[in-house]
Structures are given as C-alpha cells and as structure tokens.
Design goal:
By secondary structure, the protein is an alpha+beta fold. It has 3 domains: 225 residues, no CATH class; 123 residues, Alpha-Beta Plaits (2-Layer Sandwich); 169 residues, 2-Layer Sandwich (Alpha-Beta Plaits). Helices cover 38% and strands 14% of the residues. The protein has a 5-stranded antiparallel β-sheet. A 5-stranded mixed β-sheet has the order 12-11-13-14-15, with helices on both faces. A hairpin with a 2-residue loop joins strand 9 and strand 10. Helix 22 packs across helix 25. The longest helix has 22 residues. It is globular, with a radius of gyration of 29 Å. 41% of the residues are buried. The structure holds zinc ion. The site of zinc ion (ZN) has 7 residues, from helix 15. The site of zinc ion has 7 residues, from helix 15.
C-alpha cells in the first residue's frame, strides 16, 4: 500500500540542532534537507511520499512563482507528489503567525555578517507572550530532539516510518512544544507543535476539496478554478499599497462560531444541557476534526472551503435548541487569516477607501450572522419554561407545576444528575465558573505581540504588526488555559465539586470565607504558573466568577451571572452585591486585610452610598489614616474603592456578615 503524505513532517528539520558539535561536518543550513548529500555521508535517503515535504522552500521559495508542470523548481519533484507539495505550501502559508512573504526580517542585533550562522547563544526556544520564562521553567529539557549523528539518521528514518500525524505529534510532543515555529524574532512566539498541527489540518481540508487530475499535465482545481502556480492560487499577499495586491483564484473561509443557548435552568438537573452541549461538540470534532483549528467549550474556530454549509454542519446543535452566532471571513488564500475580519471591519469604519478598495477588488467578505433552531411559525402558549422556544407540556413535580417541552425534559432526565451533599442543605453555597473570552484573547495577543515587536527595535515594525496572524498563538493559549484548569482541580479537588465530571470550567462548594479565599488562592497560583505575563485585569481573556447564594436559590441566576464576566475575578453575593477585582487588588486584599478595619469600612461604604462622592471618602480616610493604616494604604496605593474592600471582607472574613443586608 502506498504510504500517506504526512504534512506534519515538513518541519521535522526544525527539531534538529544544526550547531551541535557532532553535526558540524554535515554543514547543515536551513531546516529542510532537499539538498542534503545522502551519498556522500552514506545515509539512506527517505523514500516515502512525506519526503517531498522537504521541498516546501525549494529554490529559495521560487517554487511559489513557477508553473507546477514546467517550472524548474517543480521538475525536481516527481509529478505524482507535486499536488501534495503544492497544497502543503499553501497550508504552511495559511498557518504561519506572520505572513511568510514579507521580506526577511532584518536582525536588530549588530550581527553584520548576515551570511554566517547566527551566534550560538541566540536562543532557539519558543517564547510564549503570556509566559515568557516557559522554556527556562522546563528545567533540563532541551528543545532539540535530534543532536547527534545517530539522531540525524533517525530523523530520516522517521520520515519513512511514521504512519500517522497523531503518532508524530505524540511521540515528539515534548520537543515540539519547546521549539518555535520559526526561530527568528519576532516569529518565535508560536510552538512548532501548534504550527504543524494547523498545517496538517489545513492541508487535509484543501486536499479533500481540491480536484486533482494527474494525466499528461497536472491540473489542480478548487471550486472549479484551475491554477498552475502557488502565486496564482493565493494572489498578492498584501491588502494595502499598490504592489502584491492582485486577486487570487482560490478562496477559503475562516469562521468563528459561538455556541449559545436560550435556556434558563429551572432545576439543578437542567445543567445537563451543558453535558449535552459537550457531547454534541465531541461528535462535531470527531466528524469535522481537520476543519476545527481549535476550540473552547463554547467557541469553535473553523477553516472551511467555499460552499460547505454551516447549517448542515451544526444541524445537531440546532435540533437541540442551541444557536450559533458566527463571524465568517471569505478571502483569497494570499490574505486570508483568522483575524482578517478585525482588519476589514476596522478599515470600513475608518473609511480607508484605498484599503477597502483592495478588499473589494479581491472579493473579500466578512459576515456576522446567526443560525437559529427551527421554530414554529406561531408560538401558542404555554411555551417551555426552560428553552422558551417549544410548546411546553404541563408536568407536576413535588407539587410544583411546570411547563416543559419534551426536549428539555429529556435533557433534564438524561445523563448524570448532580445532587448537593446532604450537609449542604439549608446552607450557603458558591458556584464558580472559569471563562475564556476569545475576542479579548485576540485583542490581548495583538497588543502583546506589538509590545514584543517594539522591544526588538526592528525595521518595518508597523508592517510586521499589521501582518500578525493570531491563530496559532490563540491555539497555544487555549491549550495552556485547559492545562491551567486541570491543574487547578488537582489542587482544589478536596475543596470543591465538579457538577459535571468531564467539564472542568464549572465548580461548586459549601460556602465559608475560608473556602472562598482558598479557591481564589488556588486559582491565582495556577494562573501565575501558566500566565504570569498576562496581567489579570478587565482586559484579561481569562476570568473566574463566583456566585454565592443559599442552596435553594434558583440555579438560573448563577448562570446569568456567569454569562458576561466583567473583570478578572467577579464575585456576587446573592441580593447583596457584586464586585469585580483585578489580580493586583485581590492579592492585596488577601494579604493585607485585617479584621479590625471592618467598622471603618462600613462607615466608608455608607458615606459613599449616601454622598456618591469619592472625595468625601478620601477626606474620611485621610482623617483616620493613623488609626486605619491598612485601609488607608489599600486605598491610596492600590486605589481600591472602599465598597470593594468591604464586599471582599464581608465574604471572606466574617461568616455572619453574609446575612446582613
Ligand atoms: Zn424546552
């Protein structure tokens, strides 16, 4: 049987330490081996189809401009492998973090001799924008999987013997996550793992939808459009200026999908809807594996060819009452990227007619749309208490009459059903939920990348910033987010319960001031481990919300609070208050708050409530700054409003205070 072309292997050379003393005599340059003299060194040349992935930068990337039937660069590759290489090159461009076609980024260092290898001390490891010391923390582990002569031989063997993408990703995982997609700053910000994972997915999507004819001449068609060169397929790679902006023949889509539901949970078992959502998502990922770039519990990033119907893909979600909000970007492959929508919308709003003209001339489109479940033409009351879509049926439980549709009833009765432990009855409990906001994540990554570029002092910094493609970084970030929550549960499993066993974002525990503090501290600990360089404030993509209430309190209210977290840590005390805190504030409060300040805090809060004036509060604090030094410090140094100090104090320090209103 003919072996598979495994696109993920194209960058295997990046796992090799060319500067290792043992490998000096091979005079290795670049990260591909198409020019390697196998005969001279007595090494066997790989024979599997995957070998031809080594040609993806062939002839200094002249291969992008040449006809795949007649071009010099293509003639080195047997005809039958050219389509795979062609699609691999397209996928590699689409998955990269910064447009690959930009002129090489000049080094900011004083290294004048560009032709020589970079100095040895130049770090080759990945730099995570949110965890800059990530590599150093992996003590003793080295990025390179291959560094000896034996290793080099092994590298070539692997090209022949690996049988699936998954096998390669899992076998080399520990090296792939430490190695950057590109070692040249500022491109060293994504892991090679995520880069090749995305390349592999995009490659297989293109291959599945591309018509390939191998006869006397090769013909590649996507959506009925035949092309002969990479350039012709992609079109220009720029969206501004007047060069490199030509329309391409091949287009595709990136789609950001938000999975939402109108349901309002009446009873505790109704959270089984989330079990349902997770199950539907699992089935979706199994069916559309390669189309899914990355996902969270309620967000899916898709790469799709033209013509693939979202309504069909999401039909099971829609049939179960979920709806899908999405932002779809359609563009030439040369300019398509997952965050192009932001640019298109911004230029439209700024009335930048020259750039908008380029977008229009290339038929670039951005849509914001919604897919709704089938609804009856006429809604005849009573409608379902839970989904508020379907006609409700009368049902009696514990002498309470409810109107619930068949679907919602089925969800309620299905799956595991979580119950509060007996000793929680009549007590206060705390529901909490982690959240990752993917829109905030895109914005945060763009800003963090710009800061990084500025720190490097490089030429054409603005162009590089404009050409940042956040997809791979987002995927890396989401992987760390999932890892962080897993680690949280290792620490907090005695403290809290998971109402849905395979869903890590949601938890609940019996209320006590101590438990609230411990939960927040456990979160801060794992957050600092995974995201030390991502400031925990209102711009933070990650947040934690805690909602405190009596155990009898309607479950829907907790979930309503979780829907739109305002800050980094959001705390709500049923019917009393809700406050948001950033990381700095919460740390200070945990470390510095003393019980003796309570009465003073009440006084400040009531002054603020009565006067609505911050000045009156400051005057009072200045007045008592000697006797109330802790609070005066908190207020003057960290600028935490007194009511926020008081609110935090009420839930963490004084048990009985909770019952005061
Ligand atoms: Zn319903």
């Amino acid at each position: 049987m003919e072996k598979e072309f495994i696109a993920e292997l194209h960058d295997i050379g990046k796992l090799l330490d060319k500067n290792s003393p043992e490998l000096k005599r091979y005079n290795l340059t670049g990260h591909t081996f198409e020019k390697f003299d196998f005969g001279k060194f007595g090494i066997e040349k790989p024979t599997s189809p995957s070998w031809w992935g080594q040609y993806h930068h062939h002839n200094k990337s002249k291969i992008n401009d040449e006809d795949l039937n007649t071009g010099d660069s293509w003639r080195d590759i047997p005809q039958e492998y050219r389509p795979a290489l062609f699609l691999l090159i397209l996928a590699d461009h689409l998955a990269s973090s910064i447009s690959r076609v930009l002129p090489p980024i000049p080094s900011g260092s004083s290294n004048k001799d560009e032709s020589k290898d970079k100095p040895k001390d130049e770090p080759k490891e990945v730099l995570k924008l949110w965890n800059r010391d990530f590599y150093k923390k992996n003590k003793g582990k080295y990025w390179a999987a291959f560094k000896s002569e034996e290793d080099l031989k092994k590298l070539f063997e692997i090209i022949d013997t690996i049988t699936s993408p998954e096998e390669f990703l899992s076998q080399y995982n520990e090296y792939l996550i430490l190695t950057p997609e590109d070692e040249a700053k500022p491109k060293n910000i994504t892991s090679l793992y995520t880069h090749i994972e995305l390349v592999g997915k995009i490659y297989r999507v293109l291959k599945r939808h591309c018509e390939i004819k191998i006869e006397s001449v090769l013909e590649l068609k996507l959506n009925g459009e035949a092309v002969k060169t990479i350039k012709e397929a992609e079109g220009g790679n720029r969206t501004e200026g007047n060069q490199n902006i030509k329309k391409g023949k091949w287009q595709a889509r990136f789609v950001k999908c938000y999975i939402k539901y109108p349901h309002s949970f009446v009873r505790l078992q109704d959270i089984n809807l989330l079990v349902k959502r997770n199950k539907l998502a699992e089935d979706f990922f199994a069916e559309y594996k390669d189309y899914v770039m990355f996902h969270t519990s309620d967000f899916i990033s898709l790469f799709l060819p033209i013509g693939m119907e979202l309504k069909e893909m999401f039909k099971d979600f829609l049939n179960n009452g979920f709806f899908i909000e999405y932002i779809e970007t359609i563009a030439d492959l040369g300019i398509l990227r997952s965050n192009l929508d932001i640019k298109v919308i911004r230029e439209r709003e700024n009335n930048k007619s020259d750039i908008t003209k380029v977008f229009n001339s290339r038929n670039t489109r951005v849509y914001r749309k919604i897919l709704l479940p089938e609804m009856l033409d006429k809604i005849v009351p009573p409608i379902c208490d839970i989904c508020q879509i379907n006609p409700g049926k009368e049902r009696m439980k514990e002498n309470i009459k409810e109107w619930i549709c068949d679907k919602c009833y089925e969800v309620r009765e299905s799956g595991e059903s979580f119950k509060y432990p007996d000793q929680w009855q009549e007590n206060k409990i705390v529901w909490f939920k982690f959240n990752l906001n993917t829109e905030k994540l895109e914005n945060w990554l763009q800003k963090a990348f710009e800061k990084y570029v500025d720190s490097l002092n490089i030429n054409n910094a603005q162009t590089i910033k404009d050409e940042f493609r956040s997809l791979a970084c987002q995927s890396d970030f989401v992987k760390d987010y999932k890892g962080m929550i897993k680690t949280f549960w290792h620490k907090a499993s005695d403290l809290a319960k998971k109402p849905i066993s395979n869903y890590d974002e949601l938890g609940v525990f019996l209320y006590s001031g101590e438990n609230v503090k411990k939960t927040i501290e456990a979160f801060l600990e794992v957050y600092n481990e995974y995201f030390p360089d991502c400031e925990g404030d209102y711009l933070s993509p990650i947040s934690l919300s805690l909602s405190i209430s009596n155990v009898k309190y309607p479950i829907r209210e907790h979930f309503r609070f979780f829907e739109s977290p305002e800050g980094f840590i959001n705390i709500r005390n049923q019917n009393i208050f809700h406050s948001s805190y950033d990381k700095k504030e919460i740390k200070w409060l945990i470390n510095n708050l003393q019980s003796k300040g309570l009465h003073f805090l009440y006084k400040l809060a009531s002054i603020y409530e009565k006067t609505g004036s911050e000045i009156s509060v400051i005057v009072e604090i200045m007045d008592k700054r000697k006797s109330q030094q802790d609070i005066s410090d908190l207020y003057s140094k960290i600028k935490i409003p007194p009511e926020k100090i008081l609110n935090f104090y009420r839930i963490t320090e004084v048990e009985n205070e909770l019952y005061k209103t």
